[in-house]
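Appendix B. Chain record.
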Amino acid sequence: MKRKIYQKLLEWKRHNGTSALLIKGARRVGKSYIAEQLGRNEYKSYIKVDFNDISKDDLSLILDNLHDRDRLFSYLQLLYNTPLHERESLIIFDEIQECPKVRAAIKYLVADGRYDYVETGSLMSIRKNTEGIVIPSEEEHLDMYPMDFEEYLWACGEEPLAQFITQCYEKLEPLPQAFHRKAIQLFKEYMVIGGMPQVVKKYLETKDFNEADREKDIILTLYRGDIAKHAGTYTFKVESIFDAIPSQLAKHEKKFKLAAIAENARMRNYIEPFTWLDDAKFVNLCYGSTEPSLGLAMNADRTSIKCYLGDTGLLYGLAFDNAQEKNDTYRKIILGKLSLNEGMFTENVVAQLIASRGHRLFFYSNTDREDSSNSMELDFLLPKSKVTNKHNINIIEVKSGDKYRLSSLQKARAKYVNEINQSFVLHPDNLKRDDGILFIPLYMAGLL
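Structure tokens predicted for this chain:
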């Protein structure tokens, strides 16, 4: 499947010679696939060493010869029956977190200069996977996310529609209604399927939501296995947070309430479990900011958190895990014939798409019982790309239906007139401007 990250891999290759590339991401997000695609398309030969599937004898040969490069490369060619060509071959260390010693040796392999190196891994920041080693400065890091909506359209053979949506966004023009209806229905389908490549592949092959959900179940089982294996003393708390995500997002105010987990729970005791899930890329954390102004990270309130699942298709899998027949259920959801809390899924997919663009997630929430004009909730805050003396923050409000109010947005525009640059409302309808607010369809969320 065509992925945008491939262009970043090509840029690394063009400027390479002084670093290995580490591709980080959640399980089954496509890291190994994209690394092999690079080796297959851009090099004369490549070898993939999978540390999740290697015999003890083969691993010993590699570890015992890390500092004898001539012998190491000779053994690798024999083990994988593949010739290596100086400056024309790629060595892929897959699931590198399973072998920290090889990761530590990247410094010397890069300095050797004969070959290029790509590492792939999950749970890269987890303490257990970095103990006892010095992280090499010769590592260039690249985060990989689930497929975004544009990539989903490519996979569906809808590349012309994807290009047209981008053109309309850049010109701030609405799509003709026929194309808008098609795009919004495909977006609803994308929300249900999600962006995990194996799930997308299975659905496009079978057009069967049940088959797609079986792939989701496999991924969720892997996530739970990773939590049990790697979370250590935080295992129970991490599991509790993970299991509570659907119910927490189903609330009107989506801030995570620890009382749902334990009666006397305090955020200071749960920061590390939240961070563990974030480091594993299982979730996208959104922090409250004390005000919608430049310096969101400095104003972040680490005790006020929204916790979105990293992939919205997996959120549907968690929320509907008891449904035996998914085809009828999901089709009714896509066609809008089933009443459910659409807001939780819509906000989750917007968080997912914003995060995939490399943005950190922040929101604003304030309750003032004495002055109602100060009480407001803003779903997402994004700094504009170029900082100026004022008007540096974009506000994003997410609406899942056709009927909604914008009281918080209007209050914020009146109170923070010098801070706010652009006000966006993401909604199911077409693009329009009204009273200084830009209303854009949900399927353009990944273009912000």
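Further analysis of this model is presented in Appendix C.
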